[in-house]
């Protein structure tokens, strides 16, 4: 027999761990001196200890290992516990693989965004005052075509001649799914306003940071983010209380009624 200190050295398992396994009835010493309390282990117990360590390495809890080490436990039950552990690890691997796939996808997106960044030319220009017929409402992005349809129906019924369409993006701190959107048509003649449609003159803006891009009215795009980066990097800032403007021209080649070539306009001033 071996003293606990000797057994610890041979097995390379700490005395503290051996004592803990004893308390759990996982690996009891073959003999404990009733006077000194010294624990003694046999060479055969080395095989038991190695099995415990092997099961632990596979991810089984000490309670599960104690069950599997029991003399009366049926072989089929042990197989069942291994199958459950196998399924558990397999599920964990699939979850981690899904995370890995999402990370790879996000990396590709970041790399793609980095390549696209500043792919468009930003132009600073003065924008003259414009007469527009507009319709402002809190709505979802997908409703923009409907808003333009309502606006165009009103303009047509009023006999008003309209030109390029425009979206004015207003800030909305309390908006959730709906956004404070104002759709507008540049018009060539005056007419009385009738709620909810408004005929008004957009003010002249001495300095607009502008960018031409391809977009779709029913989904967000990165062009505004590109323009924001340019504004920050070049020592400008957005003017307060000036909505971002987006003037859209139907892109006939795309075959998509919601596809546009658009010019984003953001009023800026020197920071």
UniProtKB/TrEMBL annotation:
Keywords: DNA-binding. InterPro entries: AraC_E-bd, DNA-bd_dom_put_sf, MerR-type_HTH_dom, MerR_fam, Reg_factor_effector_dom_sf. CDD domains: HTH_BmrR. Pfam families: MerR_1. Residues 1-71 form the HTH merR-type domain. Transmembrane segments: none annotated. This is MerR family transcriptional regulator.
């Amino acid at each position: 027999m071996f003293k606990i200190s000797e057994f610890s050295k041979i097995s390379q398992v700490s005395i503290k761990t051996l004592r803990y396994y004893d308390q759990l009835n996982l690996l009891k010493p073959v003999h404990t001196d009733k006077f000194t309390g010294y624990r003694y282990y046999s060479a055969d117990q080395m095989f038991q200890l190695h099995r415990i360590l092997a099961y632990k390495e596979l991810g089984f809890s000490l309670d599960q290992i104690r069950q599997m080490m029991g003399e009366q436990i049926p072989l089929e039950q042990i197989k069942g516990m291994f199958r459950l552990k196998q399924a558990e690890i397999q599920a964990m691997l699939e979850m981690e693989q899904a995370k890995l796939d999402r990370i790879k996808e996000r990396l590709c997106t970041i790399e793609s965004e980095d390549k696209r960044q500043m792919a468009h030319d930003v132009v600073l220009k003065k924008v003259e005052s414009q007469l527009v017929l507009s319709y402002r409402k809190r709505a979802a992005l997908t409703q923009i075509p409907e808003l333009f349809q309502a606006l165009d129906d009103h303009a047509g019924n009023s006999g008003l001649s309209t030109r390029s369409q425009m979206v004015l993006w207003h800030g909305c701190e309390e908006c959730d799914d709906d956004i404070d959107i104002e759709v507008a048509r540049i018009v060539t003649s005056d007419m009385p306003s009738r709620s909810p449609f408004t005929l008004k003159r957009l003010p002249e803006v001495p300095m607009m940071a502008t960018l031409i891009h391809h977009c779709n009215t029913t989904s967000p795009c990165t062009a505004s983010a590109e323009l924001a980066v340019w504004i920050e990097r070049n020592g400008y800032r957005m003017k307060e209380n000036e909505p971002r403007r987006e003037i859209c021209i139907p892109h006939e080649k795309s075959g998509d009624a919601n596809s546009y070539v658009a010019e984003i306009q953001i009023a800026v001033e020197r920071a």
